Amino acid sequence: MTDTGVVHGRFQLFHLDHLKYVLAAKERCRHLVVGITNPDPTLTKFDAADPHRSSEMDNPLTFYERYIMLRENLLEAGLDFREFSLVPLPINFPELYRYYVPLDATFYLTIYDEWGERKLAMFTSLGLTVDVMWRKPSSEKGLTATALRQLMGRNQPWEHLVPPAVARLVKDMGLGERLRLKE
Question: What's the pTM?
Fold first, then answer.
């Protein structure tokens, strides 16, 4: 077990597979830093390895909204608030990482596609310690926030695909309309 680990994601609707990923990383370290990527438009940049991740439509939630969702879900999952930190992480600006996350931590990744491979290469080139928790084909990725927002847009059930705190927060924070991705 390492002292400090780092995971990251856009979490543009925190779902059950995100929770699985974050908790798997937490099992490997005493303190987990969760980087919320694309924290604002100025720290979001296009990358051909995953072109949709930088569009405004694919980033409907603010950093603060995602921070609240993550905090509430990790506490609800049984973590103590001292076991994790939530920070912005401008994933496309590696020269800024040192301002947001401890560079001597272990960076936990899951790889499903070219974007995952790109991040692995980027982290390795920076001399970061990387632990690839699992590598699977994109067909085995599972849930995506885009698919959840599409279900919401079609008024189909989606609540069973997110932790209970997310469904509650979407309602309490009035996020439903903004999250409904129109096809």
Answer: 0.94
Coil, strand, or helix at residue 111? Answer: strand
Contact indicator for 87, 51 with CB cutoff of 8 Å: no
- Indicate the residue type of 91: I
143-156 pLDDT per residue, tens: 999 999 999 989 89
Query: What are the beta bridge partners of residue 5?
Result: 32, 106
Residue written as tokens 């885009």? 146
Q: In this predicted structure, which of 39-48, 85-94, 134-143 has the lowest mean pLDDT?
A: 39-48
Give burial (CB, 10 Å; 0-12/13-18/19+) of 23.
middle
Among the listed residues 37, 33, 38, the one whose alpha carbon sits nearest the alpha carbon of residue 22: 33
Smallest Cα–Cα separation from 122: which of 146, 96, 148? 96
How confident is the model over 36-58, as pLDDT tens digits?
999 998 888 787 777 777 778 88
What distance, in Å, lies between the first and last C-alpha atoms of the chain? 44
Number of alpha carbons in the 13 Å side-chain half-sphere of residue 151: 14
Determine phi and psi for 50, rounding to 5 degrees: -155, 75
CB distance 59 to 10 below 8 Å: yes
